## 1
Amino acid sequence: MLFALVLASGATAQRVAPCSGGPIVHVTVAPVMPASFNPDSVQAGADCLSWQMFIYLNWRASPARAGAPSSALAATFGRPGDTAPTVWQSYPTADAVFDPAGAAVRTRSGGVLELHDIHQTGGAWLTAQSGLPTYYEVRVNPDAAEFITQNGLTTAAGQAACARGKGGFNLPHGSSSLAGVARDTDCAGAPHTYGLDVGAIEIKAAWVVLPADGSLDHRYKIAKARVTDPATGKASLQTVGLAGLHIVRKLPGASQMLWATFEQIDTVPDQLAPARAVLPVNAPAEAAPRGFTYYNPACVPATDAYGCVPNTPPGAACRPGSTTVPAGCHATSAPMQITRLTPITPEVNDATADAWAAMRRQLPAGGRDSVFNYYRLIDVQWPAQEVPPVAPRARIPLLAADMIPTPDTRYVANTTMETFVQQSRTCLDCHANAAVANPALVKARALSARTIRGLLRGGQGAPFASDYAFVFSVRTRR
């Protein structure tokens, strides 16, 4: 029998109804974190687990314990205008874990975010119809943060030593209290429990600047942020809305991680239906977008920097084929036309409709006021079977065992974060190549496939693997 954990400030694990694919139950609007996953799960089970994680992670955070939910009542879930940090927002940023001194300089009081990173993987950026870029941040939960800091993984040398260690480079999967679940270990192979014992979680969030008049605040999880204009380098205080959210989690039954991704419903239309949003049935009141964030149905090619061609990567507005901005060319201010290339499946839409229905049943006033009425599951990808832990001295690429869905079925992509590679690769296609930091490349943003090929041609051999997590090669400072 698979159980879930209820984690609250000072609370202990309790047995509650699971949402892990076997058996499948409906989501509940409560801070319930499923403890394990059934790799034999059908789509509905993976969707259910993903929505339950989303609810847990977006619960108000405990003021006393980072990474844990507060004892707040469900009535506060998604209250419009609420800028209180959620569970995932109480996680440290990846920058802070790897460079605490530098992060301390950038951190401001009062819960104000510092947003300056506008680049997706590969260097692309995404500009909304407002002419303002999308900002990104990456956070890791206490389990992952403690694994990094306690094993000395903030340095390239420490990461290489871990990969050579008896325990290998294995992020924690948590749930040590469950029968039959092997204990997590440190890099030397000694049993160890990290953080809240829920397994390593990596969050990537996409934020969009909202209108100053507050007219869209009720449709978004909002935050106050100092955003840096990429064209001028100047920062200003803005209200930002959560446009997209990746949840990547390692847990029993998903040693290759479970990859779930969500978007706010106003982001983009489907490529096959560009004039309207295709939403799940029984969508809440006011569910239809008030204009798309990244698409204008009335776009005029003669005056549009991208000629109204959907999903054109940045740089083309200034110089064809370029991903850099030449001096005097402010391409980051040119609105983009983005469409979803892989339609959301009926099964996934059913899961979102179920979550919305749960909010209507469990929240005051039928849940009409919760901003999370305006979020939807895009898809989830999971391993079709468990695989052994990453072996000591394992090198990239790691095993990319069968994943569900497979690329010949559909690609899993978030239009706010994989905008220009929506149908070119799956989650694991990239992350099987996640490596430890190479001392010669510590300042690089990531180890791209091209860089890896270059290393191999240069006779240096493939780097050690970092358990499907790119955060190590991207964030290491020294």
## 2
Amino acid sequence: MRHKLGNIYNLGIKELRSLYRDPVLMILILLAFSFMIVVAGKAASLKLNNAPIAIVDEDQSPLSSRLISAFYPPSFKTPHLINLDEIDSATDEGKYTFTLNIPPHFHRDVLAGKQPALQINADATQMTQAFIGANYIQQIINAEVNEYLNGVRVEQNLPIKIAIRMRFNPTLTEEWFGGVMELINMIAMLSVILTGAALIREREHGTLEHLLVMPLTPSEIMISKIWAMGLVVLVATALSLHFIIQGILKMPIAGSVPLFLFGTALMLFSTTSLGIFLGTVARTMPQLGLLMMLLIMPMQLLSGGVTPYESMPDIIQTIMQAAPTTHYVRISQAILYRGAGFDIVWPHFLAITFIGLVFVVISLIIFRRSLATAH
């Protein structure tokens, strides 16, 4: 046993040295756990920001001028005044996300107690902005017209009072959500890339044949790559969590960081095994990239980190229970956001462990067959 552990340790050190001498992968790791997380946190905003809007003012009245001046940064860009016959062409060319048409006699009809119609055209290819911005525009118009008629801005009196309490993210800071979800994506992607690339690098450099003539078992070769590449990603995760998530994005960690890192280690146990499997099936790095697109991208998109897991079809929810990323997203959100302890997240820990064991067994079987064929 001691001899086997020594082989696994020495082979793992060899993998770390090989990775250190690969500048491309080293730069990829550095950027993935720093720059990419900052960009995802700060750029992936769900708020309306600098939406381009054009207005057709056919009324030329004090009320229409008031409406035009109500749209300003940062929600909207300064409105452009265009003619009625320019609406279709400007929308087709994608110049404006919204166009507002104020009809003739709008001011007169409002003062007369009529209900004149305003036309809002939204470019729905900008799905998020179109959905949020249309509601913004309606609220702005209603508020400005009511204030113009009443002389003061009057809030609508409701028969009930709604008290809203924001838990876990009271300031609704979007960077906190986007940064952590991107960290999860980088953990899954890099762990697969590093282990798969390590195996393909052995094959391309001819060192895999050297290992076959040595007194080493396939399990020793496989486990050495798993622990070495998993350790690299785990250390990068801990540093990114401290310096990027907490440091640059200013996100408070509600739960236990060691518990989160323990869950990360279990996640890496699964994804590095998957990387060995893909590295065994693929013969070149381009093939590994294509296989990753087929497996990793759906795992990331359907794990609950991009869209709510509960909003997906039941059959997708059932299938994604077999993906480690689904349980890891639940673990990360529960620990980092809500301060959950082991007594809450242990079912997901157990699920990731089981999935990891299945991946290891399957990967080891395929890896042994591959080595037997090569030998």
## 3
Amino acid sequence: MKKIIMLFAAVAILGVTGCSSLGVQPWERDLLATDEMSLSAGATDLALDDHIYFSKEGTSGGRGFAGGGCGCN
């Protein structure tokens, strides 16, 4: 019985400390700012996204805004 309690305590401690380091530290942000880590894969993908946005919204540019043309974000 004591081994089961110790095992449960160990699992609980590992579960609590498993998510203790969420987020990016300031000194790690330079690694995430490289071109390889960008969300857009390339110029072709951006052109395709612009075409789809233009077809749906009837306007061009403004790729950084979320939501639809109906005003519902």
